[in-house]
Protein backbone atom coordinates (compact mmCIF):
# COMPACT_ATOMS: atom_id res chain seq x y z
CA UNK A 1 0.00 0.00 0.00
CA UNK A 2 1.55 3.28 -1.09
CA UNK A 3 0.86 6.75 0.24
CA UNK A 4 -0.44 7.92 -3.14
CA UNK A 5 -3.00 5.11 -3.34
CA UNK A 6 -4.32 5.93 0.11
CA UNK A 7 -4.57 9.61 -0.83
CA UNK A 8 -6.49 8.84 -4.02
CA UNK A 9 -9.00 6.71 -2.13
CA UNK A 10 -9.30 9.37 0.52
CA UNK A 11 -10.08 11.98 -2.08
CA UNK A 12 -12.89 9.86 -3.48
CA UNK A 13 -14.68 9.71 -0.13
CA UNK A 14 -13.99 13.23 1.07
CA UNK A 15 -17.43 14.76 0.49
CA UNK A 16 -19.39 11.96 2.15
CA UNK A 17 -17.78 11.64 5.57
CA UNK A 18 -17.99 14.92 7.41
CA UNK A 19 -16.95 13.45 10.77
CA UNK A 20 -14.45 10.83 9.66
CA UNK A 21 -11.44 13.10 10.16
CA UNK A 22 -12.36 13.42 13.84
CA UNK A 23 -11.75 9.81 14.85
CA UNK A 24 -13.08 6.47 13.66
CA UNK A 25 -15.00 4.15 15.96
CA UNK A 26 -13.37 0.84 16.81
CA UNK A 27 -15.05 -2.53 16.34
CA UNK A 28 -12.90 -4.70 18.54
CA UNK A 29 -12.84 -8.25 19.76
CA UNK A 30 -10.24 -10.72 20.95
CA UNK A 31 -6.69 -9.70 21.74
CA UNK A 32 -4.35 -10.52 24.58
CA UNK A 33 -2.84 -8.31 27.24
CA UNK A 34 0.82 -7.43 27.45
CA UNK A 35 2.86 -5.31 29.82
CA UNK A 36 3.96 -1.86 28.57
CA UNK A 37 7.64 -1.04 28.60
CA UNK A 38 7.84 2.19 30.59
CA UNK A 39 11.04 4.20 30.34
CA UNK A 40 12.89 4.17 33.65
CA UNK A 41 13.06 7.50 35.41
CA UNK A 42 9.94 8.95 33.83
CA UNK A 43 7.33 10.60 35.97
CA UNK A 44 5.20 13.61 35.11
CA UNK A 45 3.99 15.55 38.12
CA UNK A 46 0.36 15.35 36.97
CA UNK A 47 -0.43 18.09 39.48
CA UNK A 48 -0.69 21.27 37.42
CA UNK A 49 -4.31 22.28 37.85
CA UNK A 50 -6.15 25.57 37.50
CA UNK A 51 -8.96 26.47 39.91
CA UNK A 52 -12.09 27.93 38.35
CA UNK A 53 -14.80 29.54 40.44
CA UNK A 54 -17.59 28.34 38.17
CA UNK A 55 -20.68 30.48 37.64
CA UNK A 56 -23.20 30.98 34.87
CA UNK A 57 -22.34 30.98 31.18
CA UNK A 58 -23.91 30.51 27.77
CA UNK A 59 -23.17 27.02 26.48
CA UNK A 60 -23.54 25.85 22.89
CA UNK A 61 -23.97 27.96 19.78
CA UNK A 62 -26.36 28.87 17.00
CA UNK A 63 -23.40 29.39 14.65
CA UNK A 64 -24.45 28.90 11.04
CA UNK A 65 -21.30 26.94 10.19
CA UNK A 66 -22.00 24.14 12.67
CA UNK A 67 -23.05 20.66 11.60
CA UNK A 68 -26.75 20.28 12.43
CA UNK A 69 -26.34 16.63 13.41
CA UNK A 70 -23.76 17.52 16.07
CA UNK A 71 -26.32 19.19 18.34
CA UNK A 72 -24.29 22.26 19.27
CA UNK A 73 -27.42 24.33 19.87
CA UNK A 74 -29.54 25.80 21.11
CA UNK A 75 -27.59 28.26 23.22
CA UNK A 76 -28.53 27.56 26.83
CA UNK A 77 -27.70 28.97 30.24
CA UNK A 78 -25.64 26.72 32.46
CA UNK A 79 -24.58 27.27 36.06
CA UNK A 80 -21.51 25.42 37.33
CA UNK A 81 -20.03 24.85 40.76
CA UNK A 82 -16.34 25.57 41.19
CA UNK A 83 -13.82 23.01 40.00
CA UNK A 84 -10.18 22.51 39.17
CA UNK A 85 -9.06 21.41 35.72
CA UNK A 86 -5.72 20.20 34.40
CA UNK A 87 -3.80 23.13 32.98
CA UNK A 88 -2.52 20.87 30.19
CA UNK A 89 -3.71 17.70 28.51
CA UNK A 90 -2.43 14.56 30.25
CA UNK A 91 1.02 13.90 28.81
CA UNK A 92 3.01 10.78 28.03
CA UNK A 93 5.05 11.50 31.15
CA UNK A 94 1.92 11.62 33.28
CA UNK A 95 0.47 8.47 31.78
CA UNK A 96 3.77 6.62 32.15
CA UNK A 97 3.69 7.35 35.89
CA UNK A 98 0.19 5.87 36.07
CA UNK A 99 1.24 2.74 34.16
CA UNK A 100 4.35 2.29 36.26
CA UNK A 101 2.35 2.59 39.49
CA UNK A 102 -0.53 0.33 38.47
CA UNK A 103 0.56 -1.92 35.60
CA UNK A 104 -2.50 -0.74 33.70
CA UNK A 105 -2.97 -1.99 30.12
CA UNK A 106 -4.85 0.24 27.72
CA UNK A 107 -7.53 -1.10 25.43
CA UNK A 108 -5.27 -0.55 22.42
CA UNK A 109 -2.89 -3.04 24.06
CA UNK A 110 -5.63 -5.50 24.97
CA UNK A 111 -7.02 -5.49 21.42
CA UNK A 112 -3.50 -5.21 19.97
CA UNK A 113 -4.20 -2.36 17.51
CA UNK A 114 -5.30 1.23 17.16
CA UNK A 115 -5.99 3.80 14.42
CA UNK A 116 -3.15 5.94 13.02
CA UNK A 117 -3.49 8.75 10.46
CA UNK A 118 -1.91 7.60 7.21
CA UNK A 119 0.49 10.54 6.67
CA UNK A 120 2.21 9.83 9.97
CA UNK A 121 3.33 6.36 8.94
CA UNK A 122 6.63 5.90 7.11
CA UNK A 123 5.92 5.43 3.39
CA UNK A 124 8.36 2.57 3.05
CA UNK A 125 6.62 0.60 5.83
CA UNK A 126 2.94 1.00 4.90
CA UNK A 127 2.59 -2.59 3.68
CA UNK A 128 4.27 -3.84 6.83
CA UNK A 129 2.39 -1.68 9.35
CA UNK A 130 -1.14 -1.31 7.99
CA UNK A 131 -3.55 -4.21 8.38
CA UNK A 132 -6.58 -2.39 6.96
CA UNK A 133 -8.12 1.05 6.46
CA UNK A 134 -11.52 2.46 7.34
CA UNK A 135 -13.73 1.97 4.27
CA UNK A 136 -15.36 5.39 4.44
CA UNK A 137 -12.21 7.17 5.61
CA UNK A 138 -9.11 5.34 4.34
CA UNK A 139 -6.76 7.93 5.76
CA UNK A 140 -7.37 6.09 9.04
CA UNK A 141 -5.19 2.98 9.16
CA UNK A 142 -5.65 0.02 11.46
CA UNK A 143 -2.14 -0.57 12.78
CA UNK A 144 -1.41 -3.69 14.88
CA UNK A 145 0.90 -2.80 17.73
CA UNK A 146 -0.04 0.90 17.85
CA UNK A 147 -0.60 2.01 21.45
CA UNK A 148 0.22 4.99 23.64
CA UNK A 149 3.94 4.16 23.96
CA UNK A 150 4.28 3.31 20.23
CA UNK A 151 1.99 5.89 18.61
CA UNK A 152 2.82 4.95 15.02
CA UNK A 153 3.08 1.24 15.69
CA UNK A 154 6.10 -1.06 16.04
CA UNK A 155 9.37 0.83 15.84
CA UNK A 156 7.93 4.13 17.08
CA UNK A 157 8.38 5.53 20.58
CA UNK A 158 7.43 8.39 22.90
CA UNK A 159 10.87 8.59 24.50
CA UNK A 160 11.40 12.01 22.90
CA UNK A 161 7.75 13.02 23.32
CA UNK A 162 7.29 13.15 27.07
CA UNK A 163 5.50 16.50 27.00
CA UNK A 164 3.20 15.53 24.14
CA UNK A 165 -0.38 14.58 24.97
CA UNK A 166 -0.87 10.87 25.49
CA UNK A 167 -2.93 9.38 22.65
CA UNK A 168 -4.38 5.98 21.77
CA UNK A 169 -6.33 6.13 25.04
CA UNK A 170 -9.99 5.12 25.06
CA UNK A 171 -12.62 6.76 27.26
CA UNK A 172 -12.31 3.77 29.58
CA UNK A 173 -8.53 4.25 29.78
CA UNK A 174 -8.93 7.97 30.51
CA UNK A 175 -11.49 7.28 33.25
CA UNK A 176 -9.15 4.73 34.83
CA UNK A 177 -6.32 7.27 34.91
CA UNK A 178 -8.64 9.89 36.39
CA UNK A 179 -9.74 7.56 39.21
CA UNK A 180 -6.11 6.72 40.01
CA UNK A 181 -5.24 10.43 40.16
CA UNK A 182 -8.17 11.21 42.47
CA UNK A 183 -9.89 13.15 39.70
CA UNK A 184 -12.56 12.56 37.06
CA UNK A 185 -13.18 13.41 33.45
CA UNK A 186 -14.79 16.81 32.87
CA UNK A 187 -18.42 17.11 31.98
CA UNK A 188 -19.00 18.70 28.60
CA UNK A 189 -20.25 21.81 30.41
CA UNK A 190 -17.11 22.03 32.56
CA UNK A 191 -14.91 21.52 29.53
CA UNK A 192 -16.66 24.19 27.46
CA UNK A 193 -16.73 26.69 30.33
CA UNK A 194 -12.98 26.19 30.79
CA UNK A 195 -12.24 26.37 27.06
CA UNK A 196 -14.05 29.70 26.68
CA UNK A 197 -11.54 31.30 29.02
CA UNK A 198 -14.05 33.81 30.36
CA UNK A 199 -15.25 34.98 26.92
CA UNK A 200 -18.95 34.79 26.08
CA UNK A 201 -20.17 33.18 22.86
CA UNK A 202 -16.91 33.56 20.98
CA UNK A 203 -15.92 30.97 18.37
CA UNK A 204 -12.56 30.32 19.99
CA UNK A 205 -11.02 30.71 23.40
CA UNK A 206 -9.33 33.94 22.26
CA UNK A 207 -12.10 35.54 20.16
CA UNK A 208 -13.80 35.17 16.79
CA UNK A 209 -10.75 35.36 14.52
CA UNK A 210 -8.87 32.10 14.00
CA UNK A 211 -5.46 33.70 13.41
CA UNK A 212 -5.55 37.21 14.91
CA UNK A 213 -2.90 39.36 13.31
CA UNK A 214 -1.75 36.31 11.36
CA UNK A 215 -0.73 34.51 14.55
CA UNK A 216 -1.54 30.81 14.90
CA UNK A 217 -3.23 30.15 18.23
CA UNK A 218 -3.74 26.39 18.00
CA UNK A 219 -2.56 23.22 16.30
CA UNK A 220 -4.94 22.35 13.46
CA UNK A 221 -4.64 21.39 9.79
CA UNK A 222 -3.43 23.80 7.12
CA UNK A 223 -3.58 22.74 3.50
CA UNK A 224 -5.85 20.28 1.70
CA UNK A 225 -7.22 17.53 3.92
CA UNK A 226 -6.28 14.67 3.88
CA UNK A 227 -3.48 14.98 1.30
CA UNK A 228 -1.43 18.09 2.07
CA UNK A 229 -0.57 19.45 5.51
CA UNK A 230 1.55 22.58 5.10
CA UNK A 231 2.12 22.80 8.87
CA UNK A 232 2.03 26.58 8.78
CA UNK A 233 1.37 26.58 12.53
CA UNK A 234 4.68 24.79 13.05
CA UNK A 235 3.37 21.27 13.52
CA UNK A 236 2.25 18.34 11.39
CA UNK A 237 0.65 16.02 13.92
CA UNK A 238 0.48 16.50 17.66
CA UNK A 239 2.72 18.98 19.49
CA UNK A 240 3.87 19.47 23.09
CA UNK A 241 1.02 20.57 25.32
CA UNK A 242 2.35 24.08 26.00
CA UNK A 243 3.18 25.01 22.41
CA UNK A 244 0.48 27.66 21.92
CA UNK A 245 -0.75 30.56 24.07
CA UNK A 246 -3.00 29.86 27.05
CA UNK A 247 -6.56 31.11 27.10
CA UNK A 248 -7.94 33.67 29.54
CA UNK A 249 -8.05 31.09 32.34
CA UNK A 250 -4.43 30.07 31.77
CA UNK A 251 -5.35 26.73 30.14
CA UNK A 252 -3.35 25.33 27.23
CA UNK A 253 -4.41 23.56 24.02
CA UNK A 254 -8.12 23.46 24.74
CA UNK A 255 -8.42 24.02 20.99
CA UNK A 256 -6.76 21.68 18.49
CA UNK A 257 -3.86 19.30 19.07
CA UNK A 258 -5.90 16.28 20.26
CA UNK A 259 -9.55 15.59 20.98
CA UNK A 260 -10.37 15.34 24.67
CA UNK A 261 -12.83 12.90 26.23
CA UNK A 262 -15.67 14.21 28.40
CA UNK A 263 -17.69 12.37 31.03
CA UNK A 264 -21.06 12.77 29.29
CA UNK A 265 -22.84 10.33 27.03
CA UNK A 266 -23.51 12.03 23.69
CA UNK A 267 -26.96 13.46 23.03
CA UNK A 268 -28.30 16.16 20.73
CA UNK A 269 -31.33 16.89 22.92
CA UNK A 270 -30.75 20.17 24.77
CA UNK A 271 -33.16 22.55 26.47
CA UNK A 272 -32.88 26.33 26.53
CA UNK A 273 -35.97 26.72 28.72
CA UNK A 274 -34.27 26.54 32.13
CA UNK A 275 -30.88 27.28 33.67
CA UNK A 276 -29.09 23.95 33.88
CA UNK A 277 -27.27 23.26 37.14
CA UNK A 278 -24.03 21.26 36.80
CA UNK A 279 -25.35 19.17 33.87
CA UNK A 280 -23.67 15.88 33.15
CA UNK A 281 -25.64 14.62 30.16
CA UNK A 282 -27.88 11.60 29.86
CA UNK A 283 -27.03 8.05 30.92
CA UNK A 284 -26.96 4.88 28.87
CA UNK A 285 -26.14 6.13 25.38
CA UNK A 286 -23.64 4.42 23.05
CA UNK A 287 -20.97 7.11 22.64
CA UNK A 288 -19.10 9.60 24.77
CA UNK A 289 -18.61 13.30 24.01
CA UNK A 290 -15.27 14.56 22.72
CA UNK A 291 -14.36 18.25 22.54
CA UNK A 292 -11.69 20.58 21.20
CA UNK A 293 -10.84 19.25 17.76
CA UNK A 294 -7.40 18.00 16.78
CA UNK A 295 -4.45 18.53 14.47
CA UNK A 296 -6.62 17.06 11.68
CA UNK A 297 -9.39 19.68 11.81
CA UNK A 298 -9.76 22.18 8.98
CA UNK A 299 -12.50 24.70 8.17
CA UNK A 300 -13.10 23.19 4.73
CA UNK A 301 -13.88 19.79 6.15
CA UNK A 302 -14.12 19.38 9.92
CA UNK A 303 -14.85 22.73 11.49
CA UNK A 304 -14.94 21.27 15.00
CA UNK A 305 -12.15 23.18 16.71
CA UNK A 306 -14.58 25.89 17.87
CA UNK A 307 -15.25 25.80 21.63
CA UNK A 308 -18.93 24.88 21.16
CA UNK A 309 -18.17 22.15 18.61
CA UNK A 310 -18.48 18.52 19.63
CA UNK A 311 -18.31 14.98 18.36
CA UNK A 312 -18.51 11.52 19.91
CA UNK A 313 -16.98 8.07 19.87
CA UNK A 314 -17.55 4.70 21.51
CA UNK A 315 -15.92 4.32 24.95
CA UNK A 316 -13.47 1.64 23.79
CA UNK A 317 -12.23 3.53 20.69
CA UNK A 318 -8.72 4.92 20.39
CA UNK A 319 -6.73 6.77 17.75
CA UNK A 320 -3.63 8.89 17.30
CA UNK A 321 -5.57 12.13 17.82
CA UNK A 322 -7.54 11.37 21.01
CA UNK A 323 -6.35 12.36 24.49
CA UNK A 324 -7.87 13.88 27.63
CA UNK A 325 -7.52 16.06 30.72
CA UNK A 326 -9.09 15.74 34.16
CA UNK A 327 -11.01 17.82 36.69
CA UNK A 328 -11.43 17.79 40.45
CA UNK A 329 -14.35 19.16 42.41
CA UNK A 330 -13.72 21.90 44.95
CA UNK A 331 -15.67 23.17 47.90
Report what the structure shows.
The protein contains six helices and 15 strands. It is an alpha+beta fold and 331 residues long. It has a domain at 57-103 and 163-329: paralog of FGE (formylglycine-generating enzyme). The chain has a four-stranded mixed β-sheet. Strands 1-4-15 form a three-stranded antiparallel β-sheet, with no helix packed on it. A three-stranded mixed β-sheet has the order 2-3-11, with helices on one face. Strand 6 and strand 7 (137-144) form a beta hairpin. The longest helix is centred in the N-terminal third of the chain and has 11 residues, at 3-13. The protein is globular. The model is unreliable at 1-19 and 31-46 (pLDDT under 50).
Q: What's the structural blueprint in terms of helices and strands?
A:
Blueprint: H1 3-13, E1 49-52, E2 55-59, E3 76-80, E4 83-86, H2 92-102, H3 107-111, E5 113-117, H4 126-129, E6 132-134, E7 137-144, H5 171-180, H6 188-196, E8 223-224, E9 228-229, E10 259-265, E11 276-277, E12 288-291, E13 311-313, E14 322-323, E15 327-329
Parallel strand pairs: 3-11, 10-14
Antiparallel strand pairs: 1-4, 2-3, 4-15, 5-7, 6-7, 8-9, 10-12, 12-13
Amino acid sequence: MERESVAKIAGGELKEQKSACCSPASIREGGTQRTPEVVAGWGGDGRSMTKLAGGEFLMGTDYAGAFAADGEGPVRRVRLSGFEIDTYSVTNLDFAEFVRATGYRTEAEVFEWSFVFWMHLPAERLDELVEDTVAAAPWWCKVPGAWWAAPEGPGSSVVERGEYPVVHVSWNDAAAYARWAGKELPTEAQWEFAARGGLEQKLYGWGDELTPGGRHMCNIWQGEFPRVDTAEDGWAGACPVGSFPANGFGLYSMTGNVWEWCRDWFTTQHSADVVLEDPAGLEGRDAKVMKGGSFLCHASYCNRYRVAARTANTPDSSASNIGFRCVRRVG
